UniProtKB/TrEMBL annotation, chain A:
GO molecular function: ATP binding; ATP hydrolysis activity
Pfam families: ABC_tran
Listed name of the protein: ABC transporter ATP-binding protein
Primary localization class, coarse: membrane
Keyword Repeat: yes
SUPFAM superfamilies recorded: P-loop containing nucleoside triphosphate hydrolases
InterPro entries recorded: AAA+_ATPase, ABC_carbohydrate_import_ATPase, ABC_transporter-like_ATP-bd, ABC_transporter-like_CS, P-loop_NTPase
From TrEMBL, chain B:
GO molecular function, one term: transmembrane transporter activity
Keywords associated with the record: Cell membrane, Membrane, Transmembrane, Transmembrane helix
Organism of provenance: Paragemmobacter kunshanensis
Tagged with keyword Cytoplasm: no
InterPro entries per the UniProt record, alphabetical: ABC_transp_permease
Regions that span the bilayer: 12-37, 66-84, 118-141, 150-172, 202-221, 250-271, 277-296, 303-324, 330-349
Protein name, as recorded: ABC transporter permease
Classification via CDD domains: TM_PBP1_transp_TpRbsC_like
Membrane topology designation: Multi-pass membrane protein
An annotated GO cellular component: plasma membrane
Taxon lineage: Bacteria, Pseudomonadati, Pseudomonadota, Alphaproteobacteria, Rhodobacterales
Length: 510, 362
């Protein structure tokens, strides 16, 4: 926001097609020096492909790019970095068993000696209000701190353009504020930022300009401050959105009771659960917030039965099932949808039919006397595809052939269509486009209305506030006492989530 | 320029066409190698693939050998393939094969000279038990102490070989054998023999068992929940746990099945084609079966065909070295080529080959 309108990067009529899908079609937009530019779009709209082309990971089929007026066609990320383009990915590529400085060195073309590098990390982190100790092990860092490692790695290269892919999905509200201060400071110094997100309010507070993509095409360019979030969402989706309908329902009996759940994490550098207590009644939705890596995965494993504890810690409809495996819990009425779709909730190379069998064999009675009823399984898979609008050529295709959002719809649909008594979902709408996310939330609420007890674990606060009756937060493996969502302020929520992880002092003096 | 492009889902056509293509490529490359060795390539290939089955002079001897050799390979490979699909690597089928033969022969010889019909079935059960027991050692060590089953099962082969030597020199030695190592010839004791059932075919009980196991494994993998769990555990271990598969139970089960089948193969061999326990009883079926399992795509029907093909290259290879004076190393290289091409063209199942470069951005 330096006010100079000098063009930094111009993308002109870029097209990129993959077999069966045109990811980008005649996309054009430009970023000025120091501008914070939002790239907005649903999942599968072509945002990732576009930034991959700018970062040199993918070559466009046609079209041109210019960087400071010069023709720009990076053959590989190295070339992009040499030009001055840096990128912070949504998924970090860090080695947990190495310290911060070593991780930063691994991402550099010619790293300086370690001591000098540590010094530079310190000075950059202080300059930009991102405190980070170069000697700490990455495995011990929170997700927000890990993101800082990635950002600092980029900043050490003095980028002219910094690409950030969904950076706030792993941050608490306070950490988001700190990140935004850093980004504004960078922008003031003349670094342009290409900011990818689907969180519209963030874009309205942070970004100068926005390019909205839908199905690979630019559908609009706007100044986010002048538009309402709803207007932008509707541009993004191309349809009018309705928030999920929620009827105030009388609560039923306790369907899920968790008492004194403590269990060590089976995941390396994972977070152990410490004395977790809560209960969910039929018809109730409990939202569990928390920054990634605070025990969400472990909580899901402990509830689904993949991680076992003493029988009395988990009661499903009054039955003590803490020591039971996943299938016994399914028989008792609990279904679960893990966060990681490919490899955990679904087998990547198996067909949708086989994936339908994966978790529904018990409740849908798809197995008789040990033998699989493939006809019934096929029709169940077809039901999921139809009811949850899963876009796929058929149920015979492998799970990995589906886009993330479609697979998520399939996984959530598979669990919700089992007439469950208890539903546990981790990140129900992660990576799903706005329309599909709304459909998934509505489906969850519908199940709750039918008398299911629902636990939604999510890092999307807006989502939780929209669908949950009660709200709790996970912080370093501990769960806060659930509180009714009504009347909660965003500050209170932030404090429940553990504040800014020692970052309160971050922007002093700036 | 040649480029590879990942297919959205594996190609069903290439899954079946790659083995055929691999055989063709092996014939071409092998033919070139034979030509460089100064042999007529067409004749050499014909001697390996055609003569064992259809040459009037040799077929009478070599045709039955096809089933005799393919039988144990298929029986063992099907068992191994279940574990391999689940990511459980039993490399010690050779040892389980030996132990099956020892247990079965031991029970039979302990009952000698009882002459009733149930001696042979009892020996089969003992053979299966012996192989199962030997496979349980790495299985339990893995589930209990998280040891590596590859290493343990492999090392147990050498233990089994020493047990075999000790048995043929000691406990199971033929008391009427004039002090020579080796047991009584079980093939000549009617109650214990596993004879050729149809003369001139090589068909014995072990071959019948192999065919039955192929069918059973096919049904298991296609229709039974256990087969689904095995595939799931191999492809996506975390999804398998989510689906309620108990990984430890699967290790015990897969190791147990492959051990039992290897043991059965050993028993059928010692009572049939081999006839007796001797120091050099084992000839490597347990190891070759690993190749057969992969050659057959870990698919029961594929293994059936791969076992027959493997047996054919062995018999044909022997014939070629005998008839044409091809060095044994050339035959082994030829068999190696088969495996190499199979793995190489396997790429086509998951990838598409595209020619030419993409248009660069202008």
């Amino acid at each position: 926001m330096t006010g100079t309108a000098r063009e930094l990067l111009a993308v002109d009529n870029v097209t990129k097609a993959y077999p069966g899908v045109v990811a980008n079609s005649d996309v054009s937009f430009s970023i000025s020096e120091g501008e914070i530019h939002a790239l907005l779009g649903e999942n599968g709209a072509g945002k990732s492909t576009l930034v991959k082309m700018i970062y040199g990971l993918v070559k466009p089929d046609s079209g041109t790019m210019r960087f400071r007026g010069q023709a720009y066609q990076p053959a590989e990320p190295k070339a992009a970095r040499a030009t001055g383009v840096a990128m912070v990915f949504q998924h970090f590529s860090l080695f947990e068993a190495l310290n911060v400085a070593e991780n930063v060195a691994l991402g550099m073309e010619s790293p300086p000696p370690m001591r000098e590098l540590s010094g530079r990390i310190r000075s950059v982190s202080e300059e930009y209000g991102l405190p980070l100790d170069p000697d700490r092990m990455v495995g011990d860092l929170s997700a927000g701190e890990r993101q800082r490692v990635e950002i600092i790695r980029c900043l050490l290269q003095n980028p002219k353009l910094l690409i950030m892919d969904e950076p706030t999905s792993v941050l608490t509200p306070q950490e988001v504020d700190i990140l935004f201060k850093t980004l504004r400071q960078l922008s003031a110094e003349g670094t342009a930022i290409l900011y990818i997100s689907h969180k519209l309010e963030e874009i309205r507070t942070l970004c100068d300009e926005a390019t909205i993509l839908r199905r690979g095409k630019v559908v609009a360019t706007c100044t986010p401050r002048d538009r309402s979030a709803r207007e932008m969402a509707e541009l993004m989706v191309g349809a009018t959105l309705t928030p999920p309908a929620r009827a105030a329902l009388p609560k039923g009996d306790i369907a899920l009771q968790v008492t004194g759940l403590s269990v060590a994490s089976p995941i390396p550098f994972g977070t152990s659960l410490k004395d977790i207590n809560f209960s969910v009644a039929r018809g109730e939705v409990l939202g569990i917030a928390g920054v990634a890596g605070n025990g969400q995965d472990e909580l899901l494993l402990a509830l689904s039965g993949e991680l076992r504890t003493a029988a009395s810690t988990i009661q499903i409809d009054g039955q003590p099932l803490g020591a039971a495996g996943p299938n016994q819990r399914r028989a008792a009425g609990l279904v679960a949808a893990p966060e990681e779709r490919l490899g955990h909730a679904a087998a990547p190379d198996m067909s949708l039919v086989e994936n339908a069998l994966l978790s529904a064999a018990i409740r849908r009675k798809l197995v008789r006397g040990g033998f699989i009823d493939w006809d019934a399984t096929r029709s169940f898979a077809a039901d999921i595809v139809a009811d949850f609008d899963v876009r796929t050529p058929g149920t015979h295709v492998a799970a990995r052939a589906l886009s993330g959002g479609n697979l998520q719809k399939f996984v959530v649909g598979r669990e919700l269509l089992q007439s469950p008594a208890v539903i546990v979902i981790n990140q129900p709408t992660w990576g799903v486009d706005a329309a599909a996310a709304a459909a998934i939330r509505q489906a969850i609420l519908d199940r709750a209305a039918l008398g299911a007890a629902v636990v939604v674990i999510s890092q999307d606060l807006d989502e939780l506030l929209e669908i949950a009756d009660n709200f709790a937060a996970l912080n370093e493996g501990r769960l806060t006492r659930p509180r009714p969502v009504e009347g909660l302020t965003i500050d209170e929520i932030g404090l429940m989530m553990g504040g800014a992880h020692g970052m309160e002092v971050a922007h002093h003096g700036h | 320029m040649l480029r590879l492009e990942k297919r959205p889902s594996p190609s069903a056509f290439w899954q079946w066409a790659t083995p055929v293509l691999a055989v063709v490529l092996t014939m071409i490359a092998g033919g070139i190698m034979f030509a460089l060795l100064g042999k007529n390539p067409v004749e050499a290939i014909r001697t390996i693939f055609w003569d064992p089955l259809f040459n009037e002079q040799f077929a009478a001897y070599s045709r039955p050998q096809l089933l005799v050799k393919a039988g144990p390979l298929i029986l063992i490979a099907v068992g191994l393939s279940l574990g391999f699909r689940a990511g459980i690597w039993n490399i010690g089928a050779e040892g389980q094969y030996i132990m099956g033969a020892l247990f079965g022969a031991g029970v039979g010889l302990a009952l000698y000279p009882v002459e009733t019909r149930w001696v042979f079935p009892l020996m089969v059960v003992a053979g299966i038990f012996g192989g199962w027991l030997w496979a349980m050692i790495p299985a339990i060590l893995k589930t209990r102490f998280n040891t590596n089953e590859i290493l343990v099962s492999l090392l147990l082969v050498y233990v089994a070989q020493n047990v075999l030597a000790s048995m043929s020199l000691g406990l199971l030695r033929n008391p009427e054998g004039g002090g020579f190592p080796g047991s009584r010839n079980l093939g000549q004791i009617p109650a214990m023999a596993n004879p050729e059932l149809i003369p001139g075919t090589g068909m014995h009980w072990g071959v019948i068992a192999a065919f039955m196991v192929v069918i059973a494994a096919y049904i298991l993998l296609q229709r039974h929940i256990l087969g689904f769990q095995i595939k799931l555990a191999g492809q996506a271990p975390r999804a398998a746990r989510f689906a309620g598969v108990n990984p430890q139970r699967l290790v015990l089960l897969c190791m147990g099945i492959s051990g039992a089948l290897a043991g059965a193969a050993g028993l059928f061999e010692v009572t049939g084609p081999s006839g007796q326990i001797s120091i050099d009883f084992n000839v490597g079926y347990g190891f070759t079966a690993i190749i057969v399992a992969f050659l057959g795509r870990l698919n029961p029907i594929g293994i059936l065909l791969a076992g027959l093909l493997m047996a054919l290259t062995y018999i044909g290879g022997e014939l070629a070295s005998f008839m044409l004076g091809l060095p044994a190393a050339a035959i082994q290289a030829f068999q190696g080529m088969l495996l190499f091409f199979l793995l190489a063209v396997d790429l086509l199942t998951n990838f598409r080959i595209r020619f030419g470069t993409r248009k660069e951005a202008l």
